[in-house]
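Review session, final week

We close the course with one last complete record, chosen because it touches almost every idea we covered. It is Membrane dipeptidase, a protein from Duganella sacchari with 329 residues. Go through it on your own first, then we will talk.
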Amino acid sequence: MINWDAHACLPQHPLADFTPVRKLHAAGVNYVSLNVGADMNPVSQVMSVIAGYRATIAADPERYVLVSSVDDIIQAAADGRMAITFDLEGAMPLMEQPEMVALYAQLGVRQIHFAYNRNNSVADGCHDVPRGLTSLGHRMVEAVNENGILMDCSHTGRLCSLDIMNTSSRPVIFSHANPYTLVQHGRNVTDEQIRACAATGGVVCVSGLSFFIGSAQPTADDVARHAAYVADLVGVRHAGIGLDICFTEPGLDDTPPGAFDPSHWWPASAGYSMEQPPTFTPPEVWRELPLALRRVGMSDSEAELVLGRNMMRVAQQVWNAPQPLAKAA
């Protein structure tokens, strides 16, 4: 059995401590996608983070491995190592160049969504004016498909996410999103979005973040309830887990350089408060999830699908897609 956490955040700093990754592994997680940057992070910071994370992984090969296939993840689990890939939250680090997608893929990015809450030249954020996927966005979706990267729609505007799912030739996921029907927050996804994701063959991975799950102190039962809603709506093969735990490290400043305004990215009008930050499930919740999923009516085999097998299926389809060979100059 593979436990798959579709999204987690360490400090956006090359010296970030990987102790939280070890805690996830100790709690039974075999694979985690680590965020390496978002729309508010300049490319210089994103590249520095990727270099730092890669160095940390390479320095401890008995504990971590940067993977590129599902077979790699299965082997890592057999070896007792944590399998890791990276993800990007937004298209701004792509610098409006579809060719950047291939570069990030080579550096370990295996998952990307195109907008972090706000609009950009590629896509719409969920807390901005709806426009739909731009012409550049269509080219970006093609680049993501061609390079065997998971196309993610978390943080993306509703209309735009539907455009992306209609455009993509590969299954699309939400790596960390919750049902809007259960909690009416703009970051959550509607039944229409969930159905569209399932229609691509994709997976909606529910998060454990307090704002989106509707609990000040999220538990395994809260996560299971949201996963069960997705499973009941579109089938258990389309539900997964991406807890979106954001780990901090005292003394390590990962604030984006330049004129960074948190209220722009997390607007008060959308329900965010700088005075009341979100809370997260602890890593140890992974130990409790199998029983919590059974309490909402899932069998052991169904729980295994939600905890990892569904995302393994989608990654097997996407990561193994034919990728273009680099042409010599």
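Two points worth writing down before the exam:
Residues 4-319 form a domain with the TIM Barrel fold (CATH 3.20.20.140).
Strands lie at 4-9, 31-38, 64-66, 82-89, 109-113, 150-152, 172-173, 204-206, 239-241, 245-246.
Good luck, everyone.
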